[in-house]
Amino acid sequence: MFYLLICLILSIFLNIFSQQDFTGSYRELLGKDFDFTSIKITGTVKKEKANVTFIEDAKGMKFCIKQLNIDRTRTQFGLVREVLASYIAESVVNIHINKVRIIPANIDFPGKILNGIATLHTFVPGSNKSVDYPIKITLQQRLSKKFSIEERGFNQRVILYMSVHRDLPLIVAFDTFASNPDRTCNNLFYDKKTDIFCGIDLELSFKLPFERDLGILAIYHIKKFMKEKIKFSSKEIASLKKYNNTLKKLLEKNSPEKLCRILDIVASYAGFIPKNKNAYNEELDPANDINLVVHHNRSRAATHIGFLPKDIFSVIRQACLA
Which of 265, 281, 317 has the alpha carbon at shortest distance from 104? Predict the structure, then answer.
């Protein structure tokens, strides 16, 4: 009895410690010894919705800074979701997704516009150009209703392409788990030197309504494959097993309650609290009430993750054995 009590106290202590260890701060990536005085801007890419600045220090450490151009709280909150999704990817070994942390609105940082929230991203080596790999990889699990249901989600196209390399089933499983529909060719890098694929751009994770969820679509497709007795190759079956095991690990490491706590920590650190004019302008857009935005995203993450364990694993297992 005494032994069980000690184990319980230790478990609670470790849980609290692990929660406090993650802040979402950009300093988690840079480290305590990062030399801000030596930072130089090496390039800038301006897009319609976002600006990306590339920086490097005297030691050769490279990072990217991302800021969104749309001044709406609901849009800007995508940066918080991106940090949350990065945290999820880091929870399981060998899911190659670049790390992302928040630079708060009130922090002055080279390459960042003051009074604007930004994200700091680890630099991803390699290229997103298809010429660097023998075939063009298309892993996007589409959610847009402009596509038929057969073209959306975890369909045969995704299974075929994720079977060509050991890294891809893990990235696809992560996208299903985080309901990220944006794994376009531009957001998938391949490094020839290390033979590693790495995903970037997680801003759309946990964004869309639950009825357009990648978890639901995955179950729909796999049940349909079983009903129609679709035959998969040995490589595809191996990749399905990897996909299944990765989903299990993600679920074990990331409960709905835990992810909601992380979301709150990151949102608060970013400056997404009521009446913080550095983070959003309530007068400019009354619909941007921050309490509604945070509540919506907490509910979205919790509902999606809470749904996953019901039958997706057993369905995938049956498909692999069929």
Answer: 265
